Amino acid sequence: MLKNLFKKSEEQTREEESKEEQESTPEEGQSPASSQEEETPGEGVTLGGLFGRLKEGLTKTKKGITDRVDDMVKSYTKIDEDLFEELEEILITADLGVNTTMEIIDQLRDRVRENKTTDPMEVKGLLKELLTEALEEVADPNLNLETTPSVIMVVGVNGVGKTTSIGKIAHKLKGEGKKVLLAAGDTFRAGAIDQLKIWGERSGIDVISHQEGSDPAAVVYDAIQAAKSRKVDVLICDTAGRLHNKKNLMNELGKVFKIVNRECDGLSRESLLVLDATTGQNAIQQAKIFKEVTNISGLVLTKLDGTAKGGIVISVSKELKVPVKLIGVGEKLEDLQSFEPKTFVEALFD
Ligand SMILES: Nc1nc2c(ncn2[C@@H]2O[C@H](COP(=O)(O)OP(=O)(O)OP(=O)(O)O)[C@@H](O)[C@H]2O)c(=O)[nH]1
């Protein structure tokens, strides 16, 4: 089990944070679309820096949840039913989902009673505790990468941030000393193979590819054989951004997974579904379809920086019963982070 892919110890963090303050430039850690040349795999990523990025990336959700709760509690002199109802509306609007919201509000009522809390200002602290608990139920930042090779399949519809997420994960694993191989399994979208190759070149990682329009199952088959013979630690396979309502395309994805199931018996596997957080409930619908075709082991929720409805982190995971492993809070390298409930809530309430 690879624990907390992008996490470092707090001591390292504090040390590096002060170093980073002295050394960092605004360009650091950007994606291939922007500045990248000077970056070395694994460098420039600290939890201190990460926390800052996370906080910045969650600004909209903070406005949608924390700031609204702040304003709301200030307008109350006591904790009453109206307060609970107003809080309920805030949480539902932030996409926490009706069931989770109800659970949290019920737990809050209990805690207020047990703690004999009377000051509305204390509600925020209780909410912070309860949100952390709810997120802990759905999080699992660990990736199962025990065998050599291990295989990470990455699926999701067009434009959700799949290729960039693959590039970021690969770059980070390489920085940790792992031998990584990429498979350009998105043979469907023009430019997808080149996009992956740019990530590969950037991090010094080989990419197995065929021509555009070729059979993705054949690419993945070749990549698995190459990963085995080259003694690669982790093979990461891109797949086409198949629209979930195009039955033939989903069938094709099923074919790719059939190959993987056959060729990777006994190997550690992850199937990560990348979802765009800004698409809200639509992301949940997409995820349900993908779950029918593939055995999804984890979710990567990108573009959280683009939405005030960050509560989707909880609702999507609860609804699908699949843990959130990674979250994206921006386009830079360090913006794809392991999903750590405590850190997430701290960033939201800080
Ligand atoms: N703001 C923001 N942008 C992101 C994030 N993750 C990815 N992106 C951007 O989203 C865009 C789409 O990313 P791609 O990686 O090309 O998406 P994709 O899923 O591979 O797309 P297809 O290859 O068409 O399936 C790029 O411009 C990324 O930089 C994120 O967390 N926040």
UniProtKB/TrEMBL annotation:
Catalytic activities: GTP + H2O = GDP + phosphate + H(+)
According to the UniProt record, where is the region Disordered? Answer: 1-51
| UniProt GO BP | SRP-dependent cotranslational protein targeting to membrane
All copies of the SRP54-type proteins GTP-binding domain together span 323-336
What is the E.C. number? 3.6.5.4
User: Known InterPro entries for this protein?
Assistant: AAA+_ATPase, P-loop_NTPase, Signal_recog_particl_SRP54_hlx, SR_rcpt_FtsY, SRP/SRP_N, SRP54_GTPase_dom, SRP54_N_sf
Q: What Pfam families does its record include? A: SRP54, SRP54_N
What positions does the entry give for GTP binding?
156-163, 238-242, 302-305
Main enzyme class? hydrolase
Q: Where in the cell is it found?
A: Cell membrane; Cytoplasm
Q: SUPFAM superfamilies this protein is in?
A: Domain of the SRP/SRP receptor G-proteins, P-loop containing nucleoside triphosphate hydrolases
Q: How does it sit in the membrane?
A: Peripheral membrane protein
Alphabetic keyword roster: Cell membrane, Cytoplasm, GTP-binding, Hydrolase, Membrane, Nucleotide-binding, Receptor
The protein's matches in PROSITE patterns, at most eight in alphabetical order, are given as:
SRP54
- Family to which this protein belongs: Belongs to the GTP-binding SRP family. FtsY subfamily.
PANTHER family, alphabetically?
A: SIGNAL RECOGNITION PARTICLE RECEPTOR SUBUNIT ALPHA
Q: What does the UniProt record say this protein does?
A: Involved in targeting and insertion of nascent membrane proteins into the cytoplasmic membrane. Acts as a receptor for the complex formed by the signal recognition particle (SRP) and the ribosome-nascent chain (RNC).
**What is this protein identified as?**
Signal recognition particle receptor FtsY
The gene that this protein is the product of is: ftsY
